[in-house]
Write a structure and sequence with these properties.
This protein is an alpha/beta fold. The protein has a single domain, classed as Spore Coat Polysaccharide Biosynthesis Protein SpsA, Chain A (Alpha-Beta Complex). 41% of the residues lie in helices and 20% in strands. It is built from eight helices and nine strands. Helix 5 runs parallel beside helix 8. The longest helix has 19 residues. The radius of gyration is 17 Å and the shape is globular. The protein starts with a strand and ends with a helix.
């Protein structure tokens, strides 16, 4: 399997090193060819220094310069990916890199996109989120199904793999730069008729989330409405 792995990073100096080590070691053993694309989103800590210490020919670092948002960073990396399969993964590896095998199984069949889920039967939550984040997440999932895209239980899990053609078609149409980009990606995918599979995965809550459960929830609600408005305007055609 040949895979591009896109990792957005903002102030991840404390954990990007161990995550890269794990991803590279796994990729060396299991992929015939691969690339790891770290997109630094204007970090103010030593994230860039940690990444540049890796002298690995499979590793690329893209720098946004200023903070543009997770959605922007993922989009930039996905559009520069070269391999037939393209994964984006959160830098904390809350979903372990080994779970890519479960998702790739579906891409090897008739699916164009497969994404990890914490909320479908068969998922394994080894360390749970705090109760208020679970509550906010369930409320957001309900709103997503009511307003934007139906049929998915967990749009926000940061572990999604695409066939390259689908990734290019979808991400070049995306407009949202912040945390709601996952919903926009799946909305466009369904609108354009791609086959999408939600797959149960192992998930381990990690401290240090950049998401504010109150402020960002309100922004994400606004973004869901923007997605629907963009669709009505024909922006995703």
């Amino acid at each position: 399997m040949e895979v591009s792995i896109v990792i957005p990073a903002y102030n991840e100096g404390n954990r990007i090193g161990p995550s890269l080590k794990r991803v590279i070691e796994y990729s060396d053993k299991h992929f015939s060819d691969y690339e790891v694309i770290v997109v630094d989103d204007g970090s103010k800590d030593n994230t860039i220094d940690v990444v540049t210490k890796y002298r690995n020919p499979h590793l690329r670092l893209l720098k946004n310069g200023t903070n543009r948002g997770k959605g922007y960073s993922v989009r930039r990396g996905m559009l520069q990916a070269k391999m037939p399969y393209v994964l984006f993964s959160d830098s904390d590896l809350a979903t372990p890199i080994e779970e890519i095998e479960k998702l790739a199984w579906f891409l090897d069949r008739e699916y164009d996109i497969a994404f990890g889920s914490r909320n479908v039967r068969g998922s394994e939550i080894r360390i749970k989120q705090p109760w208020f984040r679970i509550l906010v997440g369930r409320g957001f999932a309900l709103l997503v199904n009511l307003i934007a895209v139906r049929g998915f239980r967990d749009t926000q899990c940061g572990f999604k793999v695409f066939k390259k053609r689908a990734a290019r078609e979808i991400f070049r149409r995306c407009r949202l730069d912040r945390f709601s980009f996952d919903v926009e990606v799946l909305f466009i995918a369904k609108k354009r008729g791609y086959k999408v599979k939600e797959v149960p995965v192992v998930w381990i809550d990690k401290k240090g989330s950049k998401v504010d459960p109150v402020k960002d929830s309100l922004r994400m609600l606004r973004d869901i409405l923007i997605i629907r408005l963009n669709s009505l305007k024909g922006i995703y055609r």
